[in-house]
Amino acid sequence: MIDLKYLQNNFEEASARLQKKGVDTDTLSHLKNLFAELKAANAALEAAKAEQNSMSKLFGQYKREGKDITELKAKVDANKEAMVPLQERAREAEEALFSLALAIPNFPDDDVPEGVDEEDNVELRRVLEPRSFDFEPLEHWALAEKNGWIDFERGVKLAKSRFAVLRGEAARLERALINFFLDTNRQKGFEELCVPFMNNAQMLQGTGQLPKFEDDLFKVEGEDLYLIPTAEVPLTNMYHDEILPEDTLPVLMTGYTPCFRKEAGSAGRDTRGMIRQHQFDKVEMVAIAHPDKSDEVFEMMVQNASDILTALGLPHRVVELCGGDLGFSAARTIDLEVWLPGQNKYREISSISNTRDFQARRAKIRFKDGKKNRLVHTLNGSALAVGRTLIAIMENYQNEDGSIEIPEVLKKYM
RNA sequence: GGAGACGUGGGUGAGUUGGCUGAAACCACACCCCUGCUAAGGGUGCGUAUCCUAACCGGGUACCGAGGGUUCGAAUCCCUCCGUCUCCGCCA
């Protein structure tokens, strides 16, 4: 959630900043009014409560002293009745405010490039030269078929479309990648965690998936539980509603989880192959950082993800997202796009974001800064998406006969 | 899943015939004083959120697992849910 006090006191500036994310001024001005209304409603209600409390105290005193209470009782009853509409007003104001406030995206950083969609993203650098083929490189689904690696039909049979089964070497390669990623992250100082794959609504709200993006989530029937769309949710919410000692920062966490997404709204996109699935494996990095140090941590995370791709010998490029392409919670995001020679293009394989205090405010994650409690910054990033790495290896390491080499660093994991 | 017990501040733990308890006491922690010794003693402070305010000074409101209810007034009474422990059942 954005800082409503900041919005109130710096409306012009706040409004200008959120333009980048496509939030119009009218909405923000409405939000500002709702905030003022809630404050006014609460002030009125709290004054009435204060009155009620002091009269109640008197009430007890009178009784002890054996005084007559009928007059006081009448006053206190009248005040209580007068509070009913005040209570209603405050409740409505709160509901109105939060239903809007929770749907407002985070401010982008000032140096985030202008732009409306991925066309306007800025390529920062390329790492590793794509290999040149002396034959026509195949796309991963063709390679999958030749090698018997991915059973799309049976994935669909078992579940529905956008589910697949990895078989034999591919299943082992998937597992090897998970282990390789976790080991690498651990060596960089990330604590490895194995977390629940379902989280409750409050946690999903903490990281920003709820209430706005419920349609993208698989909900467990009859339970207050959702299948996680990313390990960012459980890892970040590890410290939901907690106050961390300053010297524990940054908290670095990594974990492997499957991720579940309905992919509502992406009908028809990437239907071929294994690029976009309802369930995919991912190893995630999450950092809880001191606000003054989150930029450093961010750079470290980008570098780590890039280094993993380099270690695997996978050519990739580093792309800074423009304002319009930024996710809901992100103030800044860098994507890593891996080269897919079969598709002849770069495709996203990691996305690293700094959400600043946006998630921290929702999830109430603070640290002790001297005597005061301050919101932390939270960061998250993939290192890496496992299924897409598998695809990248298939396409980049293919031979003319359709066989696939295993990258050197993975051999000890196979 | 069934039966019983229980859920208080960083920890231990009072408080359950409703009011003077936002909450005793002790421990831990912070600062100060005393003391020249590898100890002890004394004092003060020590929850979170939000509103008023220039203010981390003062005051209001809310919070004793969560959410409702009864009442002038609830940590204390009632209901629902969640969780913990014990016994039984079940299972990887």
Throw out a few tags for this protein:
Helix Hairpins, BirA Bifunctional Protein, domain 2, 2 domains, three-stranded mixed sheet, RNA-binding
Q: Counting H and I runs of at least 4 residues, what is the number of helices? A: 12
- The N- and C-terminal alpha carbons lie at a distance of 44 Å
* Strand tally: 15
Specify the CATH architecture of the largest domain: 2-Layer Sandwich
Spatial extent as radius of gyration: 26 Å
Count of the separate structural domains? 2
CATH class of the largest domain: Alpha Beta
Mean pLDDT across the residues is: 93
Shape: elongated
**For this entry, what is the oligomeric state of its chains?**
single chain
Could you name the ranges where pLDDT drops below 50 across 5 or more consecutive residues?
none
Beta-strand content estimate: 15-25%
Assign a percent range to the helix content. 40-55%
Major β-sheet profile? 8 strands, mixed
> Can you identify the CATH superfamily of the largest domain?
Bira Bifunctional Protein, Domain 2
Strand order of the largest sheet: 1-10-11-12-15-9-8-4
List the secondary-structure elements in sequence, H or E. Answer: HHHHEHEHEHEEHEHEEEHEEEHEEEH
Category from helices, strands and their pairing: alpha+beta
CATH topology of the largest domain: BirA Bifunctional Protein, domain 2
